[in-house]
Amino acid sequence: MFRKIVIILLLVQISHAALAQKRKKEKAEDPDSTGVVMDRFMPSTLPILLFDDTEKKEKQKKEKKKIKKNIFFGERTKKGRIKQSFRDQTQTQQFHYTYTNKTVDPYIRDIYWFDKKDNVIRTKDFDPSRGYLLHGPYSRSMEETVLEEGNFYFGTKHGIWLSFDNRSVLLDKLHYSEGWPKDSRVSYYNKANNQIEQLTPIEYELKEGNFYHFYEDGQIAVSGEYHYGEKVGLWTEYWNNKSKVIRKREVQYQETPFTKNFRPYIRAEWDKDGNLIYRNEIRAGN
């Protein structure tokens, strides 16, 4: 009898342990199980806005006096070239890249890097083990006609970027400062102290890129993306927590701009401690 009781108790313990392990696994696999997110949006990593290039221009003037091969913005680079065929025409991308793995500003949407393993240029998910950040002059041409040209600065578009049609007629001329469109709108709580309130990226007079709103202490309040002036993807609101970044609410917008009959909806909500309090199960199951 005693032996049976011991066996039953052991089975109960094993069952409880297995159930706990299962719940732990389910929690780990559930992206909504906690509203706490990585700390890349903490106040110590505010956007690096360098729209005033006066000091940099002076530095470039001095560097021009000492012309060195394949050195751009004071960084030694290597040349790269990618050729691809499209409908009996050859597209060529000529670029420079650096072995320096500079920490990329997490607020920049497009980080350009050369994936050496696949021999392609990517704009997302930079992986130092696979490739290198673009740095220096870049051009894209179809046969002998240049379609796009500009400069990169550690993976971000920098300076003047030009685009042309197949008859070499200028289509666009855009200005960037380390990945930020020069026409971006920035509002401040206190400009002297660089206390940013909102950052709205603008290209072609339309909202284009990552949008950010901050609390007065620098903590991220809202983040989302515009494409052709339309809100797209997930827009996230955050609690004003001093020690952690905790999601408050996620609103799902259309994945591509101008999607007909799409109505934005709240995807999930969390309390101030990061506990899930609401999830749109119907939408989540689709």
Automatic annotation (TrEMBL):
Entry superkingdom: Bacteria
Q: Which UniProt keywords apply?
A: Signal
Signal sequence region: 1-20
| Name of the molecule in the record | Toxin-antitoxin system YwqK family antitoxin
